[in-house]
TrEMBL record:
<keyword id="KW-0444">Lipid biosynthesis</keyword>
<keyword id="KW-0067">ATP-binding</keyword>
<dbReference type="Pfam" id="PF00781">
    <property type="entry name" value="DAGK_cat"/>
</dbReference>
<keyword id="KW-1208">Phospholipid metabolism</keyword>
<protein>
    <recommendedName>
        <fullName>diacylglycerol kinase (ATP)</fullName>
        <ecNumber>2.7.1.107</ecNumber>
    </recommendedName>
</protein>
<dbReference type="GO" id="GO:0008654">
    <property type="term" value="P:phospholipid biosynthetic process"/>
</dbReference>
<dbReference type="InterPro" id="IPR005218">
    <property type="entry name" value="Diacylglycerol/lipid_kinase"/>
</dbReference>
<dbReference type="GO" id="GO:0007200">
    <property type="term" value="P:phospholipase C-activating G protein-coupled receptor signaling pathway"/>
</dbReference>
<dbReference type="InterPro" id="IPR000756">
    <property type="entry name" value="Diacylglycerol_kin_accessory"/>
</dbReference>
<dbReference type="InterPro" id="IPR045540">
    <property type="entry name" value="YegS/DAGK_C"/>
</dbReference>
<keyword id="KW-0418">Kinase</keyword>
<dbReference type="InterPro" id="IPR016064">
    <property type="entry name" value="NAD/diacylglycerol_kinase_sf"/>
</dbReference>
<dbReference type="InterPro" id="IPR017438">
    <property type="entry name" value="ATP-NAD_kinase_N"/>
</dbReference>
<keyword id="KW-0443">Lipid metabolism</keyword>
<comment type="similarity">
    <text>Belongs to the eukaryotic diacylglycerol kinase family.</text>
</comment>
<dbReference type="Pfam" id="PF19279">
    <property type="entry name" value="YegS_C"/>
</dbReference>
<dbReference type="GO" id="GO:0005524">
    <property type="term" value="F:ATP binding"/>
</dbReference>
Amino acid sequence: MKLIFIVNPAAKNGRARKVWRKLEKLLQSSNIPHDVLFTAKAGDGVKLARQVVARESGRVMIVAVGGDGTIHEIINGIESSDNVVIGYIPAGTGNDFARGTNISRHAEKALHHLLSHPKVSRYDIGTYGGSQISEGQFVNNIGCGFDAHIAQKVNASKWKPFFNRLFLGKFVYVFYLVKELFFYQPTRIRLQVDGKSHTFERAWFATIANHPYYGGGMKIAPFAKADDGALDVVVVHNVSRLKILLLFVTVFWGGHRKMKEVTMVVGKKIHIDADDVLPLHADGESIGAGNITVSAGKTIHIIANGSINTTDE
Ligand SMILES: Nc1ncnc2c1ncn2[C@@H]1O[C@H](COP(=O)(O)OP(=O)(O)OP(=O)(O)O)[C@@H](O)[C@H]1O
């Protein structure tokens, strides 16, 4: 199988470039033939993956080197081409895709596993669309409301490089979470899951998860499985500002699921709209604002590490 790496050298504030240099040395010293393509700007992951798919007629493994935004773009470039297998080497800030697939967050170990145990698994991906947004696919989660608002703030943040330099990348989420907690206004969210309607007053956010992890290790949907053909919806509603802070502590081990203000629903076709025009994110990348329809049912081939999406719940 042909091996092609797509590297986002800008991931983790440029540290992914150093990670790639180490990986390339390993590949060269082991005489492993490979091609490498580098993204030069946002959106290139989609374009490069699309070009590879159009060019290669035989079996090909496309290995994403970067963070969740990089794997998100590459998946959106390959659609669900049968001759393509996806590998992933985490080199980003949050790396939730690595958590959801049990891939080591140590890049060299992840490469070693990829090359020595290339067992192919089926992995669910979600598809989305809406009246005010383009269509796309996600690997980890998609959401509207407070979490998308935080994702926008984190991605635009001058603090992200600062935290990354201190090896505290994931705490940038916590920083913005606490800051924005005082200003964000919850709203009414209407949810349709497989034809059944649910309304939530004063909802902070709704997240649709493919596996448990988001925001750099928060176990938002502890029971989500990326090979069950379904998606887990988590809605946080009617919660005080103080308690939402507690929620974002307990979410790291999944304890938030016991709160009465947290509702979890599983389904395959989900529509969300709200009284306000809510910001949206897919895999932590801003995708606009407004209503959204999300579907399960597509799968891709990936190299995971043993069982995918397991949690220690
Ligand atoms: N060469 C580049 N220069 C600048 N930005 C790029 C480049 N290539 C890709 N990008 C953009 O970089 C963004 C961040 O990438 P990515 O999400 O992989 O890293 P991260 O933010 O450090 O990690 P994570 O999402 O896991 O927290 C993506 O939105 C992607 O579109």
